[in-house]
Specification:
Structural class: mainly alpha
Order of helices and strands: HHHHH
Shape: elongated
Helix content: 40-55%
Distance between the termini: 56 Å
Strand content: under 5%
Number of domains: 2
Number of strands: 0
Largest sheet: none
């Protein structure tokens, strides 16, 4: 902020900003994401896939949906979190039932 002086404008209260306070550019973020994965010797995976994995893991760990929604920026009571990540519960339910040798429909 010191370098940009009066030109700095973070009108959206962003945590990470470009030099003048605006949002970071997509290319900038992707470049740093790729660099971070390389530094950790991890294979490339799209950022959104990692976000999906994180939210799915939260569901598997039993984190209440309202807390997950707050963390990832979904509106409270939004169906987005529920619809996209409920497959986790269906998969887990199927596995549990199969462990008890209960026939599970595949549809």
């Amino acid at each position: 902020m010191i370098k940009s002086g009066d030109s700095y404008n973070n009108e959206h209260d962003l945590i990470f900003t470009a030099a003048l306070g605006g949002p970071l550019g997509k290319r900038y973020v992707l470049r740093h994401w790729t660099d971070a994965l390389k530094a950790l010797k991890l294979p490339y995976r799209p950022f959104h896939v990692t976000r999906h994995t994180f939210i799915t893991q939260m569901a598997l760990d039993g984190v209440p949906e309202a807390i997950t929604q707050t963390i990832v920026g979904h509106k409270k009571g939004s169906e987005v979190t529920h619809k996209i990540y409920t497959h986790v519960n269906k998969e887990n339910t199927k596995k549990v039932l199969e462990n008890y040798r209960i026939n599970v429909p595949t549809t």
